[in-house]
Amino acid sequence: MKIAIVDCGAGNLHSLAKGLALAGDVEVAIETDPVAAICADALVLPGVGAFGSAMERLAPAREQIRDALLGGLPCLGVCLGMQLLFDASEEGAGDGLGVIAGRVERLRARRVPQMGWNLVAPEPAESLAARPFHAYFANGYVCRPRDEGVVTAWSRHEDDRFAAIVRTARTVGVQFHPEKTGRDGLSLLAAWLRAAAGAPAMSPAREAAR
Amino acid sequence: MSLTRRIIACLDVAAGRVVKGVRFEGLRDAGDPVALAERYEAEGADEIVFLDISATVEGRRTMLDVVRRTAERLFIPLTLGGGIASVDHAAQALRSGADKIAMNSAIVARPELIGECAERFGVQCVVASIDARREGDAWRVRTRGGRTETSLDAVAWARRCADLGAGEILITSIDRDGGRVGYDLELTAAVAAAVTVPVVASGGGADAAHIAAALEAGADAALLAGVLHDGVTTVAALKRELAAMGVAVRPTIAEAL
Question: In whole angstroms, what is the distance from residue A104 CA to residue A79 CA?
């Protein structure tokens, strides 16, 4: 299985690539061209950067990525990558991918950004993690989905309860960094890869993108 | 339920080797930063900081290689500090596998660098590292490893760094550094009250009581170096003691949840 990590021009992609390679029998490529990235078997939107500059980078391919995700291309959005799945963000200008309805808002807490290890409590429906675990977060903003039914794990920073994992169809977003969450993070990546490998081989949207 | 408090292990590295003496049993190469970082991760450290103290271009290149090799095996956050003086340097560090960059002298010389890095990489990547020395009732910022005096008040400078886009403040007491008598709690409290971003206490911490006091003073994390390298204590032992004192720390073993 070929996994493409979209290079949004900033930050550490190395750890995520390494984490994925360790978690499963996959070929991981870092792809600067987002259109080329959606031709992989599964897509990863990585976690570092700022919303405005990342979306600026993705903007030319926005419709194609959106169509590919809605068409069933398995996707994992990590931290900022999760936030890019939503409609818009308080952090910066530009439209998000709009794959999940809702907005990205600043954490309602005194200490922002949230930096460190926080407890993730999965709902029973979440298949990527069976039990609560501590995950590494580094974020000042969180996703507020219009429909809370997409949230499959919650966390709390001070008094603000926020979505730690969201999913719709084959798109998964995690607000924490699984590649920085030790063993629990690697096992989550492995579970995601197994689920992605079970996805339909090709959807019409991806066929069109090729 | 909220964020746990962090224990951060800091390693001084020059030309690819850990500089301060490290006395670990069972390490094939006690001077290898990669092996040490892995060792601290296994013991339950919440983050690793590499401080590059090489002064040469060659040394910096070696450092990026160390970061790259560490990132291949480390699955907790890694911060690189020392010698980062431009957005390009920062980009190289992050691209090599660092999760955050800590800047000190360079941001005193050119404060706009904070905002430039925050805009490109996000505030959560940008750590303002401040070395402070007590002068009467206040603290003065020093740069270049403490050698150069500045006119900046440390608390005011911390606030300015946060305003400019730093996502974390690493405040080191020069007076306490290496002394093992505890963090400068007044300095920690003053900085923690002045900013809303997380604050890491550094300089002088040697045991669980020191760490607990720094957290009580408002720090979100405590940085340790020598006491870990010398084997005086371990992260696991410190976390056990802190947990017994009622401090929320990440369990070192997943099953402990």
Answer: 11
Range of the domain at A55: 2-209
Number of H helices, E strands in chain A: 7, 12
> Quick check: B75 and A49 CB within 8 A?
no
CATH number assigned to the domain comprising residue A123: 3.40.50.880
- Among candidates A39, A77, A73, A28, which has minimal Cα distance to A55? A77
Interface residue B51 vs chain A (CB under 8 A) = no
Domains and CATH numbers, chain B: 6-245 (3.20.20.70)
Q: What SS3 state is found at B105?
A: helix
Cis ω for the linkage preceding A34 (within 30 of 0): no
User: Among A79, A91, A105, A143, which one carries the catalytic annotation?
Assistant: A79
Distance in angstroms (rounded) separating the CA atoms of residues B30 and B11: 12
Tell me if B199 sits within 8 A of B9, measured CB to CB: no
Contact flag B3-A114 (C-beta cutoff 8 Å): yes
Mean pLDDT by 10 residues, chain B (257 residues): 90 86 60 92 96 82 93 94 93 93 97 95 94 96 92 98 98 93 98 98 97 98 92 94 96 54
In tens digits, chain A (210 residues) has pLDDT values of: 999 999 987 778 889 999 999 999 999 999 999 999 999 999 999 977 788 888 988 999 999 999 999 999 999 999 999 999 999 999 988 899 999 999 999 999 999 999 999 999 999 989 899 899 999 999 999 999 999 999 999 999 999 999 999 999 899 999 999 999 999 999 999 999 999 998 654 444 445 555
Q: Per the structure, how many domains does chain A have?
A: 1
Closest by CA to A193, choosing from A77, A67, A23, is: A23
- Catalytic annotation on B12? yes
